[in-house]
Amino acid sequence: MKVGIVAGEPSGDYLGAGLMRALKVRFPQIEFVGIGGSRMEDVGMRQLYPMTRISIMGLDELLRSVLDILKIRRNLFELFNKERVALFIGVDVPDFNLGLEQRLRKSGIATVHYVSPTVWAWRSYRIRKIKRAVSHMLTLFPFEADFYKKHSVPVSFVGHPIADEIDTEYRKADVRRLLGLDGEKKQIVALLPGSRLIEVKRLGDLFIQTAHSLKKVINGVQFVAPFANEETMHYFSTLLSRYPDLPITIVQGKSRQAIAASDVALVASGTAALESALLRVPLIVAYRGSWVSYLLVKLLAHVEYFSMPNNLLHDPIVPELIQSSATVDNLVNELIRYLTKPEQRQLVENAFSDIISSLRCNANEKAATVISKLLETQT
What's residue 300's pLDDT? Predict the structure, then answer.
């Protein structure tokens, strides 16, 4: 039995690998072919293209890469039909996967989309395309499933694998020792400017300048900055070389440990924001995109908040500093508020506990159960 699968970014690689492992328990002879990262390759996926070829962020990147992306999608459609995969799983990257799913489903191949597009938040007109493209939608968050049910799209809420796997009882002292950070007495801030190079280019220098300014105000503060790959780590290190006395520890990977070791996290809007909430670490979200992309989002958005923790909470609590609001002074002021007011940190930690309980659902197993039923109808 052969299954096509495509993920386009590190978070999708993580989700795809967990799902693949759960499916292999049920179907030991299953084969996976498509696009993903090192995690999915480690589980046994046959890689057809590097994941970076389809990983785009914003309209400006799309315009530069559109011809290559369309060619890859066309080639995948032809290959999946030639090899007649039993089913296709698109993991996130909806701008790439939904078009492929629509063509595959029309040709008689069942399709599953794992991770809902933010159709509930903006560009709601996409629901028509989703209904044509997707045999079954798997959502990470409960309110997403409610949205699809209202629009008659087959859907299952499976929870979030990070909520299942994350250890909410990390001892800061232990994790700090693991990362080589200094003792229990000093306050530590995690800096996560993004998993993609374009994000680090937009936020890296801002985060470094913020750390430089904060160090003047908070005595002995330290910083830890984890990066998903060598490319982003090298770029950030080059920026940091202009501040030789700034106490920032750089690590590759280990983002979860870096957040857990910290008293507060400064993050780009994305998976790191949710991961911080699941670790019950107060956070500040900063985002800078191209003005074209930002204005399009504002024009078509149906929700007020950028970060998932705020969308999951009844009373949003995470500061979001977007575009022109993402300044050194504003970021420093928010960090000081958390670092100097323990009662504020406790308020946030209590709110985040509710998010954890709502998302801990054994997601990989639930998703594999849904897909297993679909596979049984295809074979």
Answer: 47
